[in-house]
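Please fill in the sequence for the structure shown.

STRUCTURE ENCODING:
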């Protein structure tokens, strides 16, 4: 067993109903995890943070470990996942679910590719929540769940689902080169070190999978979603579309028919009046269309520390109130 350093911490506040706080570990303390440290609700007590880089002094009085064994040794009730979307995170989160811990994650890759995790958590009476994985500060999955609860028959979804791509396309439309636009997105904290999943449409495809699961209980294969990459755009293409009076957008679409659900992520030239065209910078915007013609539009900041952490904290608050599974 790994020896744990002793940190002087103030007594954790009790949840409003006076039940003891849920004992949590936080995986990752970057853009999203750092925001969660600032915003975690009183019903959750973060006992440890997992990071790649050692921080001997801890973070806000909380010990930081680099070995997953050390955080699991604390036997947490809840694992909060703000790790990059890679296989390391998938292995750690799968272990947390298998051990019967609640999981709240911002990681769309793991959530989309491992539908078994949400099912296993549910079978164990535990939560597997991933609201912040889609839409950042725009409550996309929350709205999808509400439409289902209201009995609305959604048949089509159309949206700008990737804040980094939208930010990059806006800069390309002004004549900036792709490398410069990506560097600006990274400097702003929207794009990950490797932005290919954003630019290639894979990130948006993961989000479509999560929306389809929430709306229709369908488990789509992410790798079967047809995508188009911003990296393959000819130089000046977005600026040429802008000069023609339209706006180039990365658009994710879901269409439900009698034979199944079709998902695509394409680059589309949209009229300036279109709500998706009016979604600027790192914004996200999703339109849910129902078979009776009803439409529901959800827009908000799709990336960044505060909007994403606030969405994750919403899942934590619902978990504390016993409202998510
Ligand atoms: N950023 C956004 O706007 C946004 C929006 C929605 C969803 N998300 C999702 O949220 C997750 C986190 O994104 P982020 O932007 O916060 O990433 P980030 O800023 O790069 O932070 C990643 C954190 O994970 C830690 N980490 C990386 N590899 C690790 C490993 N092998 N073992 C232990 N710790 C490791 C890093 O440690 P160090 O600090 O030591 O480097 C860092 O604290 C991702 O899955 C992303 O897709 C992000």
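FILLED IN BY: designer on duty
SEQUENCE:
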């Amino acid at each position: 067993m790994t020896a744990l350093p002793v940190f002087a911490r103030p007594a954790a506040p009790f949840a409003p109903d006076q039940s003891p706080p849920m004992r949590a570990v936080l995986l990752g303390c970057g853009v999203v995890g750092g925001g969660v440290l600032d915003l975690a609700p009183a019903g959750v007590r973060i006992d440890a943070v997992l990071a790649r880089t050692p921080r001997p002094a801890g973070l806000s009085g909380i010990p930081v470990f680099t070995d997953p064994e050390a955080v699991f040794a604390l036997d947490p009730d809840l694992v909060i996942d703000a790790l990059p979307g890679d296989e390391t995170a998938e292995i750690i989160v799968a272990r947390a679910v298998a051990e019967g811990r609640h999981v709240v994650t911002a990681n769309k890759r793991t959530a989309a590719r491992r539908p078994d995790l949400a099912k296993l958590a549910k079978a164990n009476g535990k939560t597997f929540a991933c609201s912040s994985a889609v839409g950042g500060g725009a409550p996309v999955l929350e709205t999808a769940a509400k439409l289902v609860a209201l009995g609305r028959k959604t048949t089509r979804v159309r949206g700008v689902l990737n804040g980094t791509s939208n930010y990059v396309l806006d800069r390309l439309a002004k004549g900036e080169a792709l490398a410069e636009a990506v560097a600006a997105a990274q400097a702003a904290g929207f794009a990950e070190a490797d932005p290919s999943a954003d630019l290639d449409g894979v990130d948006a495809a993961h989000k479509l999978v999560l929306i389809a699961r929430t709306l229709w209980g369908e488990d789509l294969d992410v790798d079967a979603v047809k995508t188009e990459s911003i990296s393959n755009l000819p130089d000046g293409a977005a600026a040429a579309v802008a000069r023609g009076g339209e706006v180039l957008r990365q658009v994710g679409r879901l269409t439900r028919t009698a034979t199944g659900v079709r998902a695509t992520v394409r680059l589309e030239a949209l009229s300036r009046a279109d709500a998706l065209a009016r979604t600027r910078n790192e914004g996200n915007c999703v339109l849910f269309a129902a078979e009776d013609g009803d439409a529901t539009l959800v827009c908000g900041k799709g990336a960044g520390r505060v909007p994403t952490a606030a969405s994750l904290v919403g899942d934590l608050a619902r978990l504390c109130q016993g409202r998510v599974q």
